[in-house]
């Protein structure tokens, strides 16, 4: 039996779980009040604070740290790397200190995992970080030689549900042709072909469909006029893209439950804007279908918004003609982290080395 502590630092909380093999034994979502996190200029500076909250939570659990066989953290904005389970090493930690690709709460996953694992002399891993990059070269190009498309997406959940979908279809993931749409606070739609995500929208940087709180793609001309108008700071424009964009910008909330209740109560504006978001998601799926030249084993809808039947139907009615639609509502990043570590601990996969 393998006992695994998984750590998933998010923007407002740090989730931890303890599994014994596939069995969840303990979970805790440690909330971090905004006033606490605001004290730290950079995500990396939250290391000691978040680590201590995790140690406090473990002290309140039925377990002690030294009972763990491995510690796995969510991986962050690392250099572009292929998917899989990686042993946490110093190169990773140094990269996260500098964070040249940006600050994301998950940057701390590897740092905390390594520190705690070193205390008890067990391995530390990360699994399928947001920086997973398996894109075909042709997908990287834009019409501006100065700008290349980047692969930054919900790799952990996308890969986990793609494995489950392949299993359900009876096809090995290494041979499957899937379009996976992760519908969360951010939205990413990835083309999975023969075990690799060969194209995907950058969910963090104004690429793809709008989401509950992100703008997705917008026309460039009006954007650069706005950027140079002198009316906005760079930080304000960034917030319009990430954090305050999408449904939140129109409706004042990014909460799918609230929006769904508003629609049920007859709010036509809310209904129309959700239709707009679903239209954009369906268009993105349609463009992914061309990448697979129409040979699609399944379209997979996952993430929190895939729990909403209205949203599922709005997307499905436009993409049904492409083939089978499989639903994996919600996400289980803790399970995905744990299973990634388990595959390595059981010798089913070799851990990869981050260079
Ligand atoms: N049953 C549901 N009905 C409607 N909306 C829902 C439901 N469950 C979750 N949502 C909405 O789905 C969205 C994403 O929530 P979720 O907690 O899955 O994602 P997140 O972790 O915040 O974001 P991300 O998936 O991008 O990491 C939120 O707007 C949430 O309110
Ligand atoms: C890029 C995927 C992770 C996120 O949406 O924060």
UniProtKB/TrEMBL annotation:
Transmembrane segments: none annotated. GO terms for cellular component: cytoplasm. GO terms for molecular function: acetate kinase activity; ATP binding; butyrate kinase activity. Pfam families: Acetate_kinase. InterPro entries: Aliphatic_acid_kin_short-chain (IPR000890), Aliphatic_acid_kinase_CS (IPR023865), ATPase_NBD (IPR043129), Butyrate_kin (IPR011245). The keyword Kinase applies. Its main location: cytoplasm. Gene3D superfamilies: 3.30.420.40. It is found in: Cytoplasm. The keyword Chloroplast does not apply. It catalyses: butanoate + ATP = butanoyl phosphate + ADP. Its EC number is 2.7.2.7. One of its GO terms (biological process) is acetate metabolic process. Keywords: ATP-binding, Cytoplasm, Kinase, Nucleotide-binding, Transferase. PANTHER family: ACETATE KINASE, BUTYRATE KINASE 2-RELATED. Belongs to the acetokinase family. This is Probable butyrate kinase.
């Amino acid at each position: 039996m393998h006992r695994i502590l998984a750590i998933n630092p998010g923007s407002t909380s740090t989730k931890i779980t303890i599994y014994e093999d596939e069995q969840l034994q303990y979970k805790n979502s440690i909330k971090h009040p905004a006033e606490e996190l605001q004290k730290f200029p950079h995500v990396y500076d939250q290391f000691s604070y978040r680590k201590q909250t995790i140690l406090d939570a473990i002290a309140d659990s039925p377990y002690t740290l030294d009972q763990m066989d491995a510690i796995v953290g969510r991986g962050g904005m690392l250099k572009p790397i292929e998917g899989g389970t990686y042993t946490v090493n110093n190169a990773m930690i140094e990269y996260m200190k500098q964070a040249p690709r940006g600050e994301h709460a998950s940057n701390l996953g590897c740092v905390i995992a390594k520190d705690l694992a070193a205390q008890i002399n067990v391995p530390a891993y990360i699994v399928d970080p947001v920086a997973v990059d398996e894109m075909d070269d042709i997908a990287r190009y834009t019409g501006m030689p100065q700008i290349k498309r980047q692969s930054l997406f919900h790799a952990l959940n996308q890969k986990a549900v793609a494995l489950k979908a392949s299993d359900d279809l009876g096809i090995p993931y290494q041979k499957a042709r899937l379009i996976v749409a992760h519908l969360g606070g951010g939205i990413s739609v990835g083309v999975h072909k023969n075990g690799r995500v060969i194209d995907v929208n950058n969910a963090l940087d104004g690429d793809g469909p709008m989401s509950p709180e992100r703008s997705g793609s917008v026309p460039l001309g009006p954007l650069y006029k706005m950027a140079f108008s002198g009316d906005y700071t760079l930080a304000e424009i960034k917030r319009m893209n990430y954090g305050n964009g999408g449904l939140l910008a129109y409706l004042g909330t990014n909460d799918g439950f609230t929006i769904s209740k508003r629609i049920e109560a007859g709010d036509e504006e809310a209904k129309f804007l959700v239709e707009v978001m679903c239209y954009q998601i369906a268009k993105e799926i349609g463009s992914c279908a061309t990448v697979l030249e129409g040979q699609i084993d399944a379209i997979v809808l996952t993430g929190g918004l895939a729990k909403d039947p209205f949203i599922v139907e709005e997307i499905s009615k436009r993409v049904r003609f492409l083939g089978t639609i499989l639903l994996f509502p919600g996400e289980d990043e803790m399970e995905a982290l744990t299973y990634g570590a388990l595959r390595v601990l059981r010798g089913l996969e070799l851990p990869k080395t981050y260079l």
